[in-house]
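Write out this protein's structure.
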Amino acid sequence: MLDDLTLFIEVIQRGSFAKTAEDLRISPSALSKRIAKLEVRLGTPLLSRSARGVVLTAFGKMVYDDVADVILRVKQKVQAYDSTQLNMLSVLCPQNLVAGPLFTPLSEFQFTHPTLQLRIEPDNRNVLTSQKQFDIAFRVGDQQDSSLIQRKMGSVTVHVVGRNKKLNTSHLFVPYTIKQIPNAEQFNVLASAYDYTHYVGDITLAKQFVASGNGAALLPSTEIQTLIDDKTPELQFHSEQLFTRPIYALWPNSSSPSAQARELIENVHCYCSANPSLCGGALPIG
């Protein structure tokens, strides 16, 4: 009923059903039906049409005088809230991605929108997607949450890498759980070539063990590319590609992404498509 009262006020302010329908982007017939439904609910006509436009009945004027100011103030408040939200973008993203390969498109986006307030949660815990409000989440790996719409941005390939193959067969550092490894049997065969397997629970930490020469690690292509960029000496593959993990942009299926959110999604998608480490391309190491 409140929505229909708002439409009634909009019609009176414009003095025309046709103008109101055009401004609100609804059909004139739908608008007329909504007003008629309101009149039925209230039990008496609110207005009539004439050559001069719409004319309030005595009852319609009483209703208008009673509720117009209140409803218009509420409408202004809602528009102010919408304006605030349009000037804010909340993003969830894994730490190693947001501070690593996706920092470039994120930085370029921020330069393009200097007045947009960003709220970035650098966390990969999937629980956040159900317990936090956000506009976009970037996640690596298959997503099962049916309350989210997802679009694939790219993919990372996963290999075992180390410094100097001959000196690094004692220790293997693994940042994934067994459930995250698609072919656990194949992985167990590979891991048996190492004296010790360490489950470290963090991709950046596993990469640091490789960089320091502690051993080999199961790493995604994004972290391997970082080791290449850092000119890590004697870096070598210890395995072929073991599996791939998709990168997704996700947002609540209860709403459409804002224009800014859509722009960031497109920027990230284009960036992933142009970078081998983010689209399953080959990496230049021995």
